[in-house]
Design goal:
CATH architecture of the largest domain: 2-Layer Sandwich
CATH topology of the largest domain: GMP Synthetase, Chain A, domain 3
Number of domains: 2
Radius of gyration: 21 Å
Order of helices and strands: HEEHHEH
Oligomer: single chain
Shape: elongated
Number of strands: 3
Helix content: 55-70%
């Protein structure tokens, strides 16, 4: 079971990154979906998502990697930690996955409806 202190630090880091991202200008809405902080506080994986998904998320991640120093400085000024973790920005494509699964379910439902209507008309 993870330490509660690590969970609190993870949420604090997520909040500070979100606040700092508001200061940066992007072509789209960029949000932090979740963060994973290692037990030794050396690394923090920050998962980024956009409403457009795909290429736009990759561009946002690349831009955030370039601004990691700004994020670390703001985290250091607001959260008292001995060592500021290395930020690893990763794209979170869960919205793309959700759209794909929803499309498959809708397709299966429409095929099922067609089969039910076909069977009713044959009887």
């Amino acid at each position: 079971m993870p330490n509660q202190n690590i969970n609190r630090l993870t949420e604090d880091i997520k909040r500070e990154i979100s606040v700092t991202m508001r200061e940066l200008t992007f072509d789209t809405v960029v949000s932090v979906s979740h963060c994973d902080l290692t037990n030794d506080l050396s690394y923090c994986k920050v998962y980024i998502s956009t409403f457009e998904g795909g290429d736009m998320t990759l561009r946002a991640v690349e831009r955030l990697k370039g601004a990691s120093g700004i994020f670390k400085r703001n985290i250091n000024s607001r959260i008292k930690m001995r060592k500021i973790p290395e930020l690893i920005f990763l794209p979170d494509n869960s919205l793309d996955y959700y759209d794909k699964i929803t499309g498959i379910i809708n397709e299966l439902n429409s095929e099922s409806d067609k089969n039910v209507t076909k069977n009713v008309t044959e009887e």
